[in-house]
């Protein structure tokens, strides 16, 4: 815990730190968010600027760990401004604040701003901190992550090697490097940098050593241990050891869940990696069980596969061999199936196979790699077999051909720009751009499956679109509450009383759309994704309701009742259907209001959702969004 400055006695900083530590130990980071926010409000009320700076520094790390990046950015900027306002420039508290702020900005995807703050932090640390202060090593670690994000893996490796040498052999080296968690964390990051450079043996060596340090020091549940395990899982999966990958990812996921909860970015990414490893293990076991010395009969029926399953099988059969012809791209290409079409959601069936279906997968390259190798790789991809497992050739509609093609070789930024209009997710400081993105568009950018991504470049951009800023999410929740209330609770009965069944039917449809959106927004995009295109909405709702631990699992069936009852009540004028429709709408709204209270977005028991909107809006930090 970094204390940037001591309070003047008006606010009990030591009691705050003890309380925060207790909550983190007992319940994890998500439970501490309100405690820190209340402490900050109290410090502001008391006018204790030193305590406020300490709390802001704690808040930055906490919010970053649970994926609340827009709030973390606000805390970072407030901390920097407060330190300067207090006349602390060049001091230790100023250096610590800059380090924490830069890391929050980096995590939020504001790379340029983060880089500038890191440079200021290095200057401040050079004069304010002792040469062997381990916070300088932490600064180098975080700067290395930023360099890696920007593709400078050699620079990242250099910074991390310097940090490790300082921790192990510097003038103020740590007492016992074999048990020190900072040494272990640096080794984890060095493992990632080595892997990005294609040095897999070195990467595994660093990861295994990091785990040994974590365990020897009693830090086996440290979140950084999860990162080391995830790195080993990635390596083992690439080497064909699916069982070893599953074991590593499962252990990593348990640590992440205990530390950050199930709605964090880390949990979503680790869970997805575990699912990929489990699928690879299942395919391996399935192939082993199905193996037979007898050749398959030419008349054997083709397997019944979804588009995603067919794509993955086609990749497994031809992808690694294809990439092996391009040694310069070793460890640099991502593969999978993401984007438009029912097959990317897993909702396709036999009816779907008449268009935009067949063997194929996507290969995603960075801009530099695509410029150098994109044409040659596309030519090699085009030479792959057009038929596979009884399927093919791939049927592509006109809109899914040419510039709109859905499989083949893509530059990462251009791929996402083709779907969203943006080569990467807008920053948290550009809420207007987020609001211009429809949920169905975000769903298309974040659906599907990634079969391989050794550099993490594609997944990094994809996950950026999953991390909707918290204030934007709250603003959208407020909008949906208003529409659900106005359309369903107010206008459906009003239009029916006027005898305007058609208007009542349209109001019921607006209610269903707003409530469906709320199911996804309250579930959290990083955990459940986004509401897709209208014709797949109920399929997505049913799928979501079937997941263990799903939020609002009753709502999808209630919305099905609304659509059924609306036809009879609005068009058929059935009095019994009118009553059933009202019950389904009221029950849906009561469940949504209860979920708002469960998430701490409202303390009101009012089931009229328009009244709940004000409670949600009050929690929006951005003035512009709150005023919309």
Description:
The structure is a single chain. The protein has 628 residues and is an all-alpha fold. It has helices at 13-27, 29-46, 49-65, 69-85, 92-107, 111-128, 134-149, 153-169, 181-196, 200-216, 223-238, 242-260, 265-290, 307-324, 367-382, 412-420, 431-436, 439-446, 457-466, 470-498, 501-523, 525-528, 537-545, 555-571, 575-598, 609-617, 623-627, and strands spanning 334-337, 362-365, 408-411, 449-452. The protein has 3 domains: 1-129, Tetratricopeptide repeat domain (Serine Threonine Protein Phosphatase 5, Tetratricopeptide repeat); 303-466, no CATH class; 470-627. It is built from 27 helices and 4 strands. Helix 15 links the parallel strand 2 (362-365) and strand 3. The model is unreliable at 1-8 and 288-300 (pLDDT under 50).
Structural domain count: 3
Strand content: under 5%
Mean pLDDT: 85
Shape, per Cα inertia axes: globular
* Class of secondary structure makeup: mainly alpha
The number of helical elements comes to 27
Strand segment count: 4
* Helical proportion, percent range: 55-70%
Low-confidence stretches: 1-8, 288-300
Radius of gyration: 26 Å
Write out the strand line-up for the largest beta sheet, numbering strands in chain order: 3-2-1-4
Query: How would you sum up the major sheet?
Result: 4 strands, mixed
Q: Kindly report how far apart the N and C termini lie.
A: 37 Å
């Amino acid at each position: 815990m970094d204390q940037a400055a001591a309070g003047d006695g008006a606010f009990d900083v030591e009691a705050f730190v003890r309380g925060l530590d207790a909550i983190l130990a007992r319940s994890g980071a998500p439970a501490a968010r309100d405690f820190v926010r209340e402490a900050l409000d109290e410090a502001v009320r008391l006018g204790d600027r030193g305590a406020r700076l300490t709390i802001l520094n704690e808040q930055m790390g906490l919010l970053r760990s649970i994926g609340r990046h827009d709030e973390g950015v606000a805390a970072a900027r407030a901390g920097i401004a407060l330190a300067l306002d207090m006349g602390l420039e060049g001091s230790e508290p100023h250096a610590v604040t800059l380090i924490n702020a830069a890391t929050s900005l980096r995590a939020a995807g504001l790379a340029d701003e983060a880089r500038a703050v890191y440079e200021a932090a290095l200057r401040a640390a050079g004069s304010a901190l002792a040469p062997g202060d381990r916070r300088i090593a932490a600064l180098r670690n975080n700067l290395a992550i930023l360099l890696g994000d920007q593709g400078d893996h050699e620079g990242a490796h250099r910074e991390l090697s310097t940090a490790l040498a300082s921790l192990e052999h510097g003038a103020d080296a740590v007492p016992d490097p074999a048990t020190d968690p900072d040494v272990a964390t640096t080794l984890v990051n060095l493992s990632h940098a080595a892997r990005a450079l294609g040095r897999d043996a070195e990467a595994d060596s660093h990861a295994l050593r990091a785990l040994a340090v974590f365990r020897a020091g009693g830090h086996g549940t440290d979140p950084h241990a999860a990162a080391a395990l995830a790195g080993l899982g990635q390596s083992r999966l690439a080497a064909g050891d699916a069982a070893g990958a599953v074991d590593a990812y499962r252990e990593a996921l348990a640590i992440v869940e205990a530390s950050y909860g199930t709605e964090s970015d880390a949990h979503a990414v680790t869970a997805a990696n575990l699912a990929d490893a489990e699928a690879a293990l299942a395919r391996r076991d399935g192939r082993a069980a199905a193996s037979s010395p007898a050749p398959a009969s030419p008349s054997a029926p083709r397997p019944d596969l979804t588009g995603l399953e067919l794509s993955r099988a086609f990749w497994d059969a031809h992808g690694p061999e294809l990439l092996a012809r391009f040694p310069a791209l070793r460890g640099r290409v991502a593969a999978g199936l993401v984007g438009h079409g029912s097959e990317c959601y897993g909702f396709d069936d036999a009816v779907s196979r008449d268009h935009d279906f067949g063997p194929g997968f996507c290969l995603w390259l960075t801009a530099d790699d695509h410029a150098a190798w994109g044409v040659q790789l596309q030519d090699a991809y085009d030479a792959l077999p057009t038929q596979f497992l009884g399927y093919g050739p791939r049927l592509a509609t006109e809109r899914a051909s040419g510039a709109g093609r859905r499989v083949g070789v893509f530059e990462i930024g251009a791929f996402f720009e083709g779907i969203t209009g943006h080569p990467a997710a807008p920053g948290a400081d550009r809420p207007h751009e987020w609001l211009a993105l429809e949920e169905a568009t975000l769903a298309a950018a974040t659906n599907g499956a990634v079969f391989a991504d050794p550099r993490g470049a594609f997944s990094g951009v994809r996950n950026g679109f999953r991390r909707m800023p918290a204030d934007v999410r709250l603003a959208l929740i407020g909008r949906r509450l208003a529409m659900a209330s106005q359309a369903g609770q107010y206008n459906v009965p009003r239009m029916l009383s006027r005898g305007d069944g058609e208007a009542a039917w349209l109001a019921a449809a607006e209610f269903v759309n707003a409530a469906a959106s709320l199911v996804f927004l309250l579930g959290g995009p990083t955990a459940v994704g986004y509401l897709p295109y209208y014709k797949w909405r109920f399929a997505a709702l049913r799928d979501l309701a079937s997941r263990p631990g799903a939020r609002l699992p009753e709502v999808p069936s209630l919305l099905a009742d609304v659509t059924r009852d609306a036809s009879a009540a609005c068009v058929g004028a059935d009095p019994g259907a009118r009553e059933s429709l009202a019950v389904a709408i009221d029950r849906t709204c009561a469940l949504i209001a209860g979920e708002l209270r469960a998430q701490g977005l409202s303390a009101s028991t009012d089931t009229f959702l328009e009244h709940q909107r004000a409670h949600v809006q009050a929690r929006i930090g951005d003035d512009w969004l709150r005023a919309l």
